[in-house]
């Protein structure tokens, strides 16, 4: 922080007069530099980010969108042998409005795609998606069918892909761990930063005000 007192008005006038008498061009007036936050202020939100991410990663309510045989492996992963509840994942949310994580398991057809997208849009933020199985990832063995969507990521964003046909329950556990690692590194300020519209978007399509009488 600069504690040097600003020069007085008289000294500034004399300096400007001397510069003008010498014939030197006047220096452009510089705006005062904005105050910057110190390192402690920049680190202040970090503990809050850690707490929020810790709470989200270990309290994921799952909305299982089971479409084919991969849904059976999801059920197996939620049973006592594998028990992904110990990872902080609660299966079988009452509905999409109470869910944080959608697991799309099975073949997504073009007829089912609007329903997948509509239910995803009903989930509250923050929300995440795991694509479970080859059919959900890219269409699987039915990729060349006229009625199969070539991957659920064509209609909704996907956070983690779990390969396999069908994947074992251990693969789903690994995918959940990968998602939790991603949530732990997530920045809430970047995820929920409001989009700043461009100047063209703010001024485009506006009605030009009428000219004043003096301007005519």
UniProtKB/TrEMBL annotation:
Domain NADH:ubiquinone oxidoreductase-like 20kDa subunit intervals: 69-179
Cofactors that this protein relies on: [4Fe-4S] cluster
Subcellular location: Cell membrane
InterPro entries: NADH_UbQ_OxRdtase-like_20kDa, NADH_UQ_OxRdtase_20Kd_su
Residues annotated for [4Fe-4S] cluster binding in this entry: 69-70, 135, 165
Cofactor comment: Binds 1 [4Fe-4S] cluster.
Catalytic reactions of this protein: a quinone + NADH + 5 H(+)(in) = a quinol + NAD(+) + 4 H(+)(out)
Biased composition (Low complexity): 9-28
Residues that span the membrane, as ranges: 58-77
Alphabetized Gene3D superfamilies for the sequence: 3.40.50.12280
Enzyme Commission code(s) on record: 7.1.1.-
Broad EC category: translocase
Region described as Disordered: 1-38, 186-216
Top-level division of the source organism's lineage: Bacteria
Membrane topology qualifier: Peripheral membrane protein
Alphabetized UniProt keyword annotations: 4Fe-4S, Cell membrane, Iron, Iron-sulfur, Membrane, Metal-binding, NAD, Quinone, Translocase, Transmembrane, Transmembrane helix, Transport
Cited function: NDH-1 shuttles electrons from NADH, via FMN and iron-sulfur (Fe-S) centers, to quinones in the respiratory chain. The immediate electron acceptor for the enzyme in this species is believed to be a menaquinone. Couples the redox reaction to proton translocation (for every two electrons transferred, four hydrogen ions are translocated across the cytoplasmic membrane), and thus conserves the redox energy in a proton gradient.
PANTHER family in alphabetical order: NADH DEHYDROGENASE (PTHR11995), NADH-QUINONE OXIDOREDUCTASE SUBUNIT B 2 (PTHR11995:SF33)
Family to which this protein belongs: Belongs to the complex I 20 kDa subunit family.
Subunit and partners: NDH-1 is composed of 14 different subunits. Subunits NuoB, C, D, E, F, and G constitute the peripheral sector of the complex.
The name this protein goes by in its record: NADH-quinone oxidoreductase subunit B
Organism: Actinacidiphila epipremni
């Amino acid at each position: 922080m600069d504690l040097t007192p600003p020069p007085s008005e008289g000294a500034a006038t004399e300096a400007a007069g001397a510069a003008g008498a010498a014939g030197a061009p006047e220096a452009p007036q510089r705006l005062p530099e904005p105050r910057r936050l110190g390192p402690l202020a920049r680190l202040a939100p970090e503990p809050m980010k850690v707490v929020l991410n810790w709470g989200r990663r270990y309290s994921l309510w799952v909305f299982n969108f089971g479409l084919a045989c991969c849904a059976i492996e999801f059920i197996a992963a939620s049973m006592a042998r594998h028990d992904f509840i110990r990872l902080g994942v609660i299966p079988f949310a009452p509905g999409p409005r109470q869910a944080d994580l959608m697991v799309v398991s099975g073949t997504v057809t073009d007829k089912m795609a609007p329903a997948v997208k509509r239910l995803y849009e009903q989930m509250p933020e923050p929300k995440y998606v795991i694509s479970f199985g080859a059919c959900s990832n890219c269409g699987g063995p039915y990729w060349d069918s006229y009625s199969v969507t070539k991957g659920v990521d064509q209609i909704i964003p996907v956070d983690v892909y779990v390969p396999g046909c069908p994947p074992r329950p251990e693969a789903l556990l690994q995918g959940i761990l990968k998602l939790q690692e991603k949530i732990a590194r997530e920045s809430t300020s970047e995820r929920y930063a409001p989009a700043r519209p461009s100047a063209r978007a703010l001024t485009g399509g506006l009605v030009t005000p009428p000219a004043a009488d003096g301007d005519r």
